Amino acid sequence: MSAAAIRLAQEADLDNIMTLEHECFATDAWSRGNMHLELMAHHTTYAVIYEGERLIAYAGLSKVPGSDQSDIQTIAVAPAARGRGLGKALMLHLIAEARKQHANDMFLEVRADNPVAQALYLGLGFEHIDTRKNYYQPDGIDAWVMRLQFAKASVGREPIVLGIESSCDETGVGIVRGNTLLANVISSSMDEHARFGGVVPEIAARAHLEALQPTLREALRQANLSLQDIDAIAVTNGPGLGGALMVGIGAAKALAVSLNKPIYAVNHLVGHVGVDILERGKLETPTIALLVSGGHTSLLLVRDLLTDVELLGETIDDAAGEAFDKVARVLGLKYPGGPEIDRAAASGNPKAIRFPRGLTQPKDMQKHRYDFSFSGLKTAVARWVEVAEAKGEPFSVANVAASFREAVVDVLVTKAVNACVAHGVPRLLLGGGVVANARLREVAEQRCAEHGIELRIPAFNLCTDNGAMIATLGAQLIMAGRQPSSLNFGSESTLPVTTVQSL
Ligand code: KG4
Ligand code: ZN
After folding, report:
1. C-alpha 293 to ligand 1 mean position (Å)
2. Which of 103, 279, 327, 412 is 20 to 30 A off residue 152, Cα-Cα?
């Protein structure tokens, strides 16, 4: 639908508008009398979109002469016509109209439970500036008050960046505008790996190929944008599984070339750190970051997101999530093992069995102070179960799970907190799928509080692998004035954290 199909409303549209009003706002529709007054008022501009004889969308603007403020009074799109960009077209029309009438900014209210509409307005440059409690009656839903400042929107506009992530088993496409999240869609091939008990690289790569297009489409739909609205593409080029990475890189390059947009090849691990910007508006530095997933276990010291990320330590064998997956298998639990062990451990005694804490002996403090090792722990659990079974002694899976979980969590949190203390950094940021672990959160909260360390745990769908974190890192690079990557970069399975962007 093009903007050309939009026209100004007339009195004769009133019947159709009221029909659509009732269709869209069952419980709080305006009365016909009120709508008539609105439509005819001198300070309002109503715009309508018809499809044949049928009215399918309308919206109204109020701009009092002499005031520099404008307000969106209402906007409605017929349920059957949603997802086609009609709301956005109407908004752009009314924004242009308000500017013509010399407004400086535009206000609107949107239901707090309507993320699709919020994404539309955020994408247009509106900011959420206030919340009105119980605004929408009779349901008692809060209203977000949003404001678009025209001057701000036209000068130094924040870039809209589309990020693609495919380093492991999640296909992620995210869209941000500067520091603001517009869409975050994740498709996981986890189920396809279940019968193998771990991620199979070939299966992951193939799954990315199948998931990319629908994931991309859904992200654009969520953000209410078309590909032409995107200013730049960002993509993970490492570290991760070579074949899996290549699928995302191929797609990103194809998009960049066909849309003639710049491309930024970025570091997956640094992406996990930068994602905090989406919730806080900025990254507080310095910060220690503990990234724990099925693919990595890394402890970072971040002094500056784009220029100074140091790897303090990482796993020398299994990743933390991998340890959960392998031990779950030993205990006859399903894949992925993390949630299963978490559940089983809830009723167990964490002190029942003292399992080894890898690389925590005094002798390890020289070379491996901040490194991790989970393979000895995994073997210890397997041995313990074997011995119990050989003796024919019944044992409590809950106790084994709780004791194992305690050992992993203890090491992770101890090393992270030690790093904070040793480097005088009063902040710890967590990332990766293992962050879902209930005990990890609990112990991290406790120990951080004891040491006066501020703990940051982003929302779970920003912790697991996702495209929004990649888009965010791309946007930060653009806003810092960095040049795009050339089209020559490839997948780098072992990309070091010091390389934030591959040129
Ligand atoms: O970040 P993520 O989704 O992506 C990959 O690494 O692919 O992490 C998945 C990992 C799996 O190993 C899974 O077992 C682990 O995170 N995980 C957990 C929990 N939920 C997921 N580990 C411990 N406790 C959990 N509740
Ligand atoms: Zn990751």
Report:
1. 5
2. 279
